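Example 3.2
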Amino acid sequence: MNLAQRALAIHQRLLEHYGQPHWRRRMPPLDELISTILSQNTNDQNRDRAFETLRQRFPTWEAVRDADPAEVVAAIRTAGLANRKGPRIQEILRQITALQGNLSLDFLQELPDEEAYRWLRQFKGIGPKTAAIVLLFSLDKAAFPVDTHIHRVSGRLGLRPAQMNAEQAHAHLARLFPAEAYYAVHLNLIRLGREICQARTPRCSICPLSDLCDYYASSGYSPKGSSSPNFNATHEVKNITPNT
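Structure, written as tokens:
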């Protein structure tokens, strides 16, 4: 079984285990962009609270762009790193206005996938994960976001070289999986990483991918022993937060 075949087998196994995943309702691309910036280094709940507060205090993105920076920072405080995220959001909104003459990213729908990706990446603070999330979840374009969980899990499974960083993993993993599978693979790998293939204590005894996993195969795990193999440092994939 080559790497692409193993990737497809992993996708099919996760569909059998978790089913077809469904994320939140689709958001306009500019909303998705701001939400993703707010999500950096925090959890989904804090991101959502900050986003809702921001939208309640400022009825339009133009209002956010032109607001007193302190008011924007106060509105997104629950997302953490508000003193960095607030100015970043306002600067990106100003730059989009300067380039497009308005605050909308709907035009990205008409661009080829790679061109839309490059357009988003031109802004400071928009890295490969943020750009890919906007393209995949808002515009249904072929992009594969790699977060901390996917980076860790893909390393343990042997889907990527051990030393490959999260930014490099975006293109590498996108080549392994068929584009029509990106949505499900992304969400199901995250769920696996949160519930089973956790950073410190992977629960290998209940993992649906154990027979497809390099980490499991090399760990010396015995079903009659502990609930997880001994965590060998050579298999640890550090939590790397990509430049989102």
